[in-house]
Structure formats: structure tokens, C-alpha cells
């Protein structure tokens, strides 16, 4: 591969990979959609890696293809694990208010405040811990992941109070997970306060959506 054509291939691979990473707004109805996207992302990154290793020369194209094949296999395996875990969580959660989103590279589990905490409280109600135990069991079944537990609030009250409350809520959720057997070394718990709303704070419905805890599950492989 010549130096003139190498940038073109890099640009093409980057465009394909970026397209695969871009969230879709419609449901294709394909339960393996994210697995396929992960394989495509892996192929793009693998090709880039294969080219980077050689740094130029006649073997670039061959190494790019080998890297793409390896990357696709790894990406597909990760995507398949995420697909399985997401499906099992949706099946096992008792609350239909919990959202499980598979981005292709991670799972984002969103639990509204109302199913975990009383107003202004950072203590998880004992009668509302069942779904956290379901999540803990899933995390133990899929141990090759790291987990971020992130607390969020609406913008009611002082920002400093909301930041502290979101941090304490994240810590409480993480404590329930570790109490159910999840290795604490896999967990990070922190709060974002009112800084990352997902809906308008101008309506009660929007504020309710913003009061939440997100559990982000990332494969380590």
C-alpha cells in the first residue's frame, strides 16, 4: 500500500466505524443488531491496529485484513455477551420502569428515584432492593465487566445539595450490590448532581426522569 492510498483507507475505516457507533433512532427489530455493530466497530479498529503495527509498506493491506478479522471476532463476542445480559435483565427485573439500553459497547441500566428512594433520602428502601439483587446476580454471572454507578438529580434546590445527594445515592446503590456479592473492586460510585439532565426540568415529568441512578456496565475484554 502506498503512502498516498493509506490515508484514504484510514478515512474509510474511520467513517465506517463512526457510522456503527452512531446511535440509531429506530428499532430495526433485529435482536442481534448491537452484536453486528460491535463486530463492525471491532473490524475497523482491528484494521487500524494492523496497519499501525507495520507503519507502512507492502504488508499493510494484509495486516489490515488480519487485524479486521481479529477485531470483528472480538467485537462480535463482546456484543453477543451484552445482548444476552441485556435480554436477561429485561426479563428478570420486576419493575417496568427500569430501562436497559445496549449501546453496542456497554449497557446502561437506568433506575428512577421513585423505585429506590424516598424524597430527599439516600437510603435504598428495603422493600425496593429486589431489582438491585437481580442486577447483582447478573453482574456476578458476567464478571468480565467494570461498573459505574452514577447518581443524578433534578435542579430543585441548591446545586451543592443535589451533588451531595446524588453521590450518596450512588454509594447506597453500590453498597447494596456489594452486599449481594459483587466485587467492590469492579465498582465506581459517584454523583453528577443536576448537571446531566435527560429531560426538561420545567415540568414535573421531566424532573422525575432526571432523578435517577444509572448503572453503566462495560466489558473489560
UniProtKB/TrEMBL annotation:
Designated name of the protein: Outer membrane protein OmpA-like peptidoglycan-associated protein
Gene Ontology cellular component terms for the protein in this record: cell outer membrane
PANTHER family named in the record: LIPOPROTEIN YIAD-RELATED, STATOR ELEMENT OF FLAGELLAR MOTOR COMPLEX
Signal sequence, start to end: 1-22
Chief location bin: membrane
Compartments, as annotated in UniProt: Cell outer membrane
Keyword Membrane carried by entry: yes
Keywords associated with the record: Cell outer membrane, Membrane, Signal
Amino acid at each position: 500500500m502506498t503512502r498516498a492510498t493509506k490515508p484514504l483507507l484510514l478515512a474509510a475505516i474511520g467513517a465506517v466505524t463512526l457510522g456503527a457507533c452512531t446511535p440509531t433512532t429506530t428499532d430495526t427489530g433485529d435482536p442481534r443488531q448491537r452484536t453486528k455493530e460491535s463486530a463492525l466497530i471491532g473490524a475497523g479498529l482491528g484494521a487500524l491496529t494492523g496497519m499501525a503495527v507495520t507503519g507502512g509498506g507492502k504488508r499493510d493491506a494484509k495486516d489490515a485484513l488480519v487485524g479486521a478479522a481479529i477485531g470483528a471476532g472480538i467485537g462480535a463476542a463482546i456484543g453477543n455477551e451484552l445482548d444476552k445480559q441485556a435480554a436477561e435483565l429485561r426479563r428478570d427485573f420486576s419493575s417496568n420502569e427500569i430501562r436497559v439500553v445496549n449501546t453496542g459497547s456497554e449497557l446502561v441500566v437506568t433506575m428512577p428515584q421513585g423505585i429506590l428512594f424516598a424524597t430527599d433520602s439516600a437510603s435504598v428502601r428495603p422493600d425496593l432492593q429486589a431489582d438491585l439483587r437481580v442486577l447483582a446476580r447478573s453482574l456476578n454471572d458476567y464478571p468480565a465487566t467494570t461498573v459505574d454507578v452514577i447518581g443524578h438529580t433534578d435542579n430543585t434546590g441548591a446545586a451543592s445539595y443535589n451533588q451531595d445527594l446524588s453521590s450518596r445515592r450512588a454509594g447506597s446503590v453500590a453498597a447494596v450490590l456489594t452486599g449481594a456479592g459483587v466485587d467492590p473492586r469492579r465498582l465506581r460510585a459517584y454523583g453528577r448532581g443536576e448537571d446531566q439532565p435527560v429531560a426538561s426540568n420545567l415540568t414535573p415529568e421531566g424532573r422525575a426522569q432526571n432523578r435517577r441512578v444509572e448503572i453503566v456496565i462495560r466489558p473489560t475484554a
